[in-house]
Amino acid sequence: MQTRTWLSIPALAAAGLWWGGCAHNQTAALPNLTSSRPSSNGPAQPPVAETPDTGQADLDAMLRNEVLHFDYDQATLSADDLHRLQNIADILSKHPKLGVRIAGNCDERGTEDFNLQLGQERAAAAQKYLVDLGIDAARIATLSYGKDRPINPAHTSEAWAENRRADIQPKSQNP
């Protein structure tokens, strides 16, 4: 037994030095995995602050070139116009800080006063429908340009039909 004990003590001491030396050398030889290893997700990015959804982008996209069209000397909304206004009301309902501006326009026929009044009636018809859908009237600005802002300057029935309209834009923009 003593031989075994005698061999065991030096063997254990040698093994301890060998393992200790190997561990020390391995640690020194290995790179620091936490600092030099690139992340699989790429470089670290600073946290991005979430911006609240104001709905402005949705409203802007919906209102891009949004136009209501009217018959000659009329301020009556068509079924298509009512559908467009319903979609606008849906966004406005979800985002109470948003508003719209509705600008009534007419064709070149008629007097200046008549066309200004008719343009206002067209804008007011759209406003009334939005209010009937639950949108606060204070969020809807209306104005009339009469015949001063034609989108088609031709003097044809097709041009006149294009000019009998109400343009709808976000309230923050100028019509």
Overview of the structural elements:
The chain has 175 residues and is α+β, with helices and mostly antiparallel strands. It has 2 domains: 2-27; 56-170, OmpA-like domain (60s Ribosomal Protein L30, Chain: A), CATH 3.30.1330. The chain contains 6 helices and 4 strands. It has helices at 2-29, 33-36, 56-63, 79-94, 112-132, 157-163, and strands at 67-69, 100-105, 140-146, 165-170. A 4-stranded mixed beta sheet has the order 1-4-2-3. Strand 2 (100-105), helix 5 and strand 3 form a beta-alpha-beta unit. Helix 3 (56-63) packs antiparallel against helix 4. The longest helix is centred in the N-terminal third of the chain and has 28 residues, at 2-29. Residues 9-15, 17-31 and 33-38 have low confidence and may be disordered.
